[in-house]
Amino acid sequence: MGSTQPARGTRDFLPADLRRREHVIAIVRRVYERYGFEPLETPAFENLETLLGKYGEEGAKLIFKILKRGEHEASGQADLALRYDLTVPLARVIAEHQAQLPKFFRRYQIQPVWRADRPARGRFREFYQCDVDAIGSTSISVEVEVIAAVSEVLAALGFTDFTIRLNDRRLLAALLAQAGVPPALETEALIALDKLDKIGPAGVAADLAARGIDPRAASACLALFDQPPDDGPAVTIARLERQLGEMRTAVRDVAAIAALAEVTPAAGRIRVDPSLARGLSYYTGAIMEIAVPDLAGSLGGGGRYDRLIGMFLGRDVPACGFSLGLERIIVVMAERGMFPASVGRGPADVMVALWSDASRADAHRLAARFREGGLRVDVYPDADKPGKQFKYASLRQYPFVAIAGDDEQAQDSVTLKDMQSGSQATVPRADAVEHLVGQLTRDTE
Q: For the ranges 168-182, 234-248, 412-426, which has the lowest average pLDDT?
């Protein structure tokens, strides 16, 4: 007999889990659409060649490959792979459907991705990403709009303590060069530095050494990334200007993004952080990441990738995007008790009790009336004792139970039992929907 547990790093989603997920996704979708982003979906798997060479050395190790099928199965070779992220498939879509898409294309995508990673708290092998991307412009307005949309999503979900770390890969390259890292080892250094908040300075130093970076350069790198307490973007920008000796384009862009973000919902959230690396190799400019206290890792990240689409199209197309990690958001919200009471409410607003077998038709008639009024309704299937029916409704967290016994049927009324307070009210059937809607609305205010 096989194990009933799902594969490691994946989960079964029971109804309560899905209600929380749907609550978050509904807010994400609503905010993204307010910013003019359009929906897009892509297949769960891609041609392996589509994904290879896009994520750097570390990412390539985490791609779930699919073996060839049929007569080629014995070869052990792979030609397909599960989707690793939503950005590379988007780049493929832009190249494939460019003639059908507008010059400035803004899309959001909410779908699962798969990574052969080591499962940990808030980290899974199958998980959803909620992406926004803007294609076709090099303007910093793109970064600002993406940052604003993500900030508004988090605020709508109830987060108040998040910051958005902002850096630029060009700025980072200049700092690495200043530290003595040769250009050929820049990518290796970035991979190691991206782990700073996970394995600490000692772990990063060991990783840098293992990647062939001179100990003096490694030490200089870590000194550069040993940042003083955040004093605001302006102070950090001024320090970077002095550190680099000139006002580089990257520093100007970071300063402009931080300043412009102050007129959006991201106001007060930006922290210019030269230690932010983000390991994916396709980033070319600004990079961003969401940080919240007491969480190893982030709630999401992104950046500008002006050359990725060109790997499919043959000419570069500017692009910038951000990916929210749905699973981590849900984990943090659950731990902090951030979900509204309505999300924890049972799958029905009211359960119609079955008074007797003879009243079965009346129970279904009453349920139909409630549903026509927009209510979610469950009908208890057996003519059990009232106590058993109330106990079941309580376990299912139904707010109300509707009782239509002989007296109620004779008077064309219904008794509504509030399962939280225990109080009961008998109302005419014609008024029952309005009464329930009023009570449910009051309870959610």
A: 234-248
